[in-house]
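Extended Data, panel c. Modelled sequence:
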Amino acid sequence: MAASSEDQILEGFLCPICKADLKSASQLTSHFESLHQEEQDVLKSLKEIFGKAKKIILNDDTDLKETFDKALKFNSQDQEYYCEEQSVGVSRSSTDYFRAVRSARLERYATETNKLLIRLDKLVCNMPTDQNLRKQHEQIIVPWLDGTLVKLCPNCAKTFNITRRKHHCRLCGSLLCHDCSVFLDLNVARSIVDPSVSNTSTEPDQENLEKNGLRLCEHCYNLIELRKQVQESRNAKTVLVTAYEQMRSLMEQARPAVAMYEKMCQSLFDGETTYHLGDVNAMRGKIGKLAEGIDLLSKQIVNFSAEPGTRQARLQTAIRQAAALYIKEDLLSLRKLPTEAQIEEVRRQRYERAERQIQLERRRMEAEVARQPPAEPPEPPEPRAPAAGDDDNNPLLEQMNIIRGYIKEARRELKFEEVAILETNLKELKKEYQLLKLSKS
């Protein structure tokens, strides 16, 4: 087979000189010997080619074995030749060319994707709930192609008919059939357009997705999905960042716990009855667990693999040092708790001071009454027999019992701020109950 000067392709047993078709190999050989005597080298090569081809076709094992042995020998000679030391030749770098080609391709995809994102933002921004209004809204944002002259689906090449209707992509407006359509959930679309909106909705079923989702072609869907994957990879947190955030969360929990512990200790030293010694010990245990968690996470952070001397290695070491300093100065240097004897002594002194204050107030009131002129004594109230079960049915007692139950639950869950509030309410209720009993008596 050869090509002529007029770019025509010829087939057959052609003469390489005059391009004549000789119909068979023997006629070609005789023709070349008679008319092209001066081209003996070409004739010799032709004979060798035909001979090798004939041997290969006839599957002559002996000649093939010799050829294989020669090839092995040649390869061994080549190997010996290549073992010699060679000088470095001319090298050429194609990095700039590859970067230029890659940048142009990435820019084209980025531009097309950005256009689709702008259209998607306009589509989902003010999406009507009514289907007819929604269709008009989609056509206004993205003009649809006229499908009167289109008979086949561009993707699957199937004919449009009554059962295979024409549909439009909502982002590019191109035509496609239902089988080639891909549907995008509106919640996913909103999260792609606005990354601050978290997509916490469950995946809808196919029927609901086809009814309420956006119909897209495969090309547009792949570009949107690629942008979604890029956003997820950028927002994905590494193990190091996750450990650091957990450590910071434990530190945020430890600060109010330490302040509450100091407040409870001061309450015990002042002789107040709002908190008990067991409450303060429980809070101290909670702070100890938080310190253990912070220490463990800081050790994990400093043990992450990083090249020595790099910025990451220095940062991990600084985080570990800061965590150790925080544990030492803020969590382990807590005020020492008082003993039970000290608490009882302080409360006894507080009770004595209160008794003295009451005596002073009582003497002052008696002195004021003595200074006033005597008045007619008031008529004594009629004695009333106490009704049976007055104390049992008193709403104040019921409310005090409820608050005592709340106090027990708050102590069990180490919510000592609620304990303080509830104890204050309980004291006020006790005062009202005592005043009520005095008024009745």
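The chain has a mean pLDDT of 77. This feature is highlighted in the accompanying rendering.
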